[in-house]
Each structure stands twice: as C-alpha cells, then as structure tokens.
Write a structure and sequence with these properties.
The chain is mainly alpha-helical. The chain has 4 helices and 2 strands. Strands 1-2 form a two-stranded parallel sheet. The protein starts with 15 loop residues before the first strand and ends with a helix.
Length: about 90
C-alpha cells in the first residue's frame, strides 16, 4: 500500500493504493480502494488496508475521541481559523 503520490507521480503496474478520493489517472492495472477518512486513518496506523476483524478493533479510538477529532472539520467553529479567514482578500 502506498500513500497518495504527488502530482505527476506514476503508479507502478499492479500497485495497491487507498484513497479518500479517486486519483487521476489511477494507472494501468492499479488497484485503487476508495474509503472514508476514518478508514484512511486506520490504514495509516496499520500500514495496510485492515481486515474485517482489524477495522472494529481500531475504530474505537476514533469513536471515543470523535468530539475532539471532528471538531477540527468544522473550521467555522475554530476562532483562529475565522480570524485568518477574515483577513484574506479575495
């Protein structure tokens, strides 16, 4: 399994990749698995795509700390973000 390569990086023939979104182009005969951010976190921790048994064993920390983890996805609720966003000239 490999992390998301930089732009223009060529994937090797018959590589296996996990992505939260479909890479363009995925590559010839490359196996790309799409999944959630939670699954991506578990893949990162394990260094591989988890088995059916490994997933529930590792999702616990995300579920236990969900109120802290998902807070950072609500950028509009983070004062520091709002302060910087208001200073940006578009």
């Amino acid at each position: 399994m490999h992390g998301q390569p930089g732009a223009g990086t060529r994937r090797r023939h018959r590589d296996v990749h996990f992505h939260p979104q479909l890479p363009q182009p995925p590559g010839q005969n490359t196996f790309v698995y799409l999944g959630s951010a939670e699954l991506a976190a578990i893949c990162s921790k394990l260094g591989k795509i988890p088995t059916v048994e490994e997933y529930p064993a590792n999702i616990g920390i995300i579920n236990e700390q969900g109120d802290q983890i998902y807070r950072y996805m609500n950028f509009n609720e983070i004062d520091e973000y709002n302060e910087k966003a208001e200073a940006v000239n578009v």
